[in-house]
Amino acid sequence: MREGLFEPLDPYPGAAKPWRSRCLQCGEISHPRLHNVQAGRRCKSCSRRQLSSSRRVSNEDAQAEMEAVGLQPLEPYPGANTAWRCKCMHCGNEVTPALSRVRKGNGCKRCSSGQHRRVPEEQAVAEIRAASFEPMEPYPGANKPWRCRCTRCGCEVHPALTRVRAGRGCRRCPRTLPRTSAKQACAEMLAGEFEPLEPYPGRTDIPWLCRCMRCGEDTRKRLTSVRSGSGCRHCAPGGKERIRDEEALADMNHVGWQPLEEYPGTMTPWRCRCLSCGHEGRPTYGNNRGGKNWYGCRKCSIARWSKTQMLSENKARALIEPSGMVPLEPYPGMNAPWRCRCSRCGRISSPSLGNIYNGQGGCRWCADRGIDYGAPSLVYLMTHWSYGSHKIGICNVANRARRLGSLKKSGWETFKTVRVANGDIARQVEQGVINKVRMRGFPHYLTADLMLYGGYTETIDAEATTLPELWAMVNSELVRVISSRQ
């Protein structure tokens, strides 16, 4: 999810379920699915903003469009679908058309100026008479029912000009389309290389049991499909012969699959093994031949696709250098720690490019928020009896009263504290203890909604370990960190 520029806000629900996350680009909260993100989907809000910005019409262009149809704007451009106060250059009346309606042919309602798409009545009468209708009232409009009399059957009907243009005729007239005889239908099927196996069903749109004269397979084909040039679904497109087993096996090996059984058919699941990871799956030959699977199983295809979407070394360095960080190693990925040297203080830290891109990363020594890693600090251990949880944390000595006081308001009680020389030592001690606890298989116990002042990832289930045991880990880590610095 983080590689797709989403920061999860809830525990992982499953690949096909909505996952509440925050977009790392625009900050909007959405509910994308993991398999959609793996397939390349991105934030809908960002896509809409890019689309709307690309479609946005400038004030000058919008005024030029209105003046071209004889409307003088009296106020700035409000938007394509918003009423725009204008003055008609022909009759002088004030009207409020929207730009989108003007583009469709609408204009001043009082003098009909600008309505260049309206069909003249003479043209409409000529078109309706050509379709065997005689008008019985004035022309109402292209989309409105027009009272007419059919010149073929004499019935009174109400067709619309748009429907007549689409080929619709009188509903009450008998259908005069010639029916296809059984002899003609059989001749057309044989010409399309299909041998009928049952009598003609009587209609061209009903499936007809036939045998392909190329591959010998039985199939059901509509006469309308044969007339349009459709062939046998068991044969390859273009009238080629049925795919041979050797050819299908070679094609599957080419796209990263090793078949484990004989070729079953183009669209039948085929049991195969992925040549990259060994996973067994059931792809179809038709999907792989059509390019739906890039190489091997879905997991391998997504991994290969992700590598193609990864930023290049030059682009990644161009994004991180404005933050004052100079990379000391090759680009590891968007959310992976990247060892860099700060150009301001000269110290080494490992921020991720994703955090820097989101405005949350940079040199932790020069940051103007959070803990000061160069000042004397404190490692504390607290417990919450109602939550049944322990918590380890760090803070600067100067901020001790504020940090511990805010946690005490939420019901946390201090067990023990130890003062260290700087925040860097305190951070190493804290991370060392948390790593030991996590290696035992105990994830963080509380959720973010229970920790009003942050720090829920440093919580531990009280039933998993005791306070004296945790404090012993703190002391051992402190000794290890101090000895490694000497």
β-strand amount: 15-25%
Number of helices: 16
Gyration radius over CA: 37 Å
Point out poorly predicted stretches: 236-241
The separation of the N and C termini measures: 41 Å
Strands ordered across the widest β-sheet: 21-19-20-22
Whole-number average pLDDT?
Answer: 82
How would you describe the shape?
flat
- Class by helix and strand content? alpha+beta
Number of strands: 22
Biggest β-sheet strands, sense, barrel: 4 strands, antiparallel
Overall helicity: 25-40%
General description of the model:
The protein is α+β, with helices and mostly antiparallel strands and 486 residues long. Helix content is 30%, strand content 16%. The protein has 16 helices and 22 strands. The protein has helices spanning 34-38, 44-55, 59-68, 99-103, 121-130, 161-165, 182-191, 223-227, 245-254, 285-289, 298-309, 313-320, 353-357, 400-409, 423-439, 467-485, and strands spanning 6-8, 21-23, 29-30, 71-73, 86-88, 94-95, 133-135, 148-150, 156-157, 194-196, 208-212, 218-221, 257-259, 272-274, 280-281, 325-327, 340-342, 348-349, 377-384, 389-396, 413-420, 459-461. A 4-stranded antiparallel sheet has the order 21-19-20-22, sandwiched between helices. Strands 1-2-3 form a 3-stranded antiparallel sheet, with no helix packed on it. Helix 15 crosses helix 16. The protein is flat. The two termini are 41 Å apart.
